[in-house]
Write a structure and sequence with these properties.
Layout: H1 2-29, H2 59-72, H3 77-89, H4 97-118, H5 124-142, H6 153-181, E1 189-193, H7 199-208, E2 214-218, H8 222-232, E3 246-249, E4 260-266, H9 275-287, E5 289-298, H10 301-316, E6 329-332, H11 341-344, E7 353-357, E8 369-379, E9 393-396, E10 401-403, E11 406-412, E12 418-423, H12 425-428, H13 430-438, E13 444-446, E14 455-456
Parallel strand pairs: 1-2, 1-4, 2-3, 4-5
Antiparallel strand pairs: 5-8, 6-8, 7-8, 9-11, 9-13, 10-11, 11-12, 12-14
Length: 460
Amino acid sequence: MASRSYGVCVLCQRAVVVKIMCRGMRAAAHPQSHVDFLKGEPHRKHPGVTNLKTLRLPEELQMAARSIIHRAQVTRLTDRSRSLTNFLWSRKRAVEDSTLRQKALTLEKELWEKAMEKREDIDEETLEDRIRKKVFSELRRTTYRWTPMKFDEELGVVYMAARLAGGYAAVRRAMNEIKKRDPSFAPQSLLDFGSGLGTVVWASHSCWGNTLKEMVCVDSSGPMNTLAERLLKGDDENAEPHIKQVYFRQFLPVSPKVQFDLVVAAFTLSELLNGTEREEGVLTLWRKTNSYLVLVENGTKEGHQMLMEARDTLLKKKEKTAYDNRPASVFAPCPHEMTCPKLVHEPVTPCNFQQMYHPLPLPGHNERQTEKFSYLILTRTEPAETETEGVDWARLTAPVQRRSRHVHCRMCCPDGQLQHLVLTARKHSRDVYRCARSSDWGDQLPMIQRVDDDIQSDSE
């Protein structure tokens, strides 16, 4: 009996040794499991989480908006706000003159070739006139007709019913990226270009209300500036504004030396006529930026492509005269500064994100809605020290699919590639796996050591 017990003990000891060795081998295979990227936070609040719960408009803003809408008594407000939302979502950039000329030349060449094949006995001057008319007719039929938005008081109220809550949700979510990843940032000045209803002021005040001392809102529309001011005063012209030190202008400050800690343009690039105007506008805003520039657009192909144009302009174009020589670097959402992989993969899909919010309580509005948006944040400052040595962060570009003991994550990675990763606790460490289960579309995840059998092509 004694010898048997002794044999069992030896076997037990060997089993323990083997188990310890296996743990050591797993740890060696996955060194990130020992990297403290959590920084003391629970998995559900890990450093990469920047998503917000369902947002609601500040009470004072919501009450003011309801009061203005009630007073305005706009006919068919629900239908008109829905139509305006659809119009804005489907809006495209104006076709560039160079693109239009090239299209006309290609079409003209095709029509001439067809005419030559038929060898009809037609006077050349008559044929040329006929082809010219056909080219103009086809261009009119197929070319998108871009027109600028011109707001009067009534259309401003319709826009408020349609876009106030959704616009606030998108901007607030984008700003949360800075607030979460750079908690030491305490802006004292804000410039909002294309300020519209002033949602940027309300969103930034909810983030940095204790430090902001000057907020300049620039919008070329006088009626929209008036409406934004009414919202700040709770629809009472004799009342003090809820947020102080807000100044409305129809033009940008002239001096190139005047800078603001935070510069924002939300849903504004799409209101500029062409690529040249957008490029000049972005460069002007960058000159005004001391720390962060935040650009937000609709989460469509057009919105995303306009942001990528702006990104290329600021990363690659050098200005002849610059008063601030600190270079631009991408803060979010891109984890790299290479060509956006979404633009080179077929079919092209936009890089966009979503934020749940409560709309204004008006007829026809659901209890909760989703704002789908694209955004870009550039900074002059060094990235905040949230990164841990040995850990790169990838961006989740689609909803996380949680399955039994594994998680599907589609990510844009620091190497400029899109990946579809299947994460498990056994292969990628318990910490990384639990962080993935707690994350969602738009959050960041620590980049895991590549394991070939866990990677699927993004087209699958």
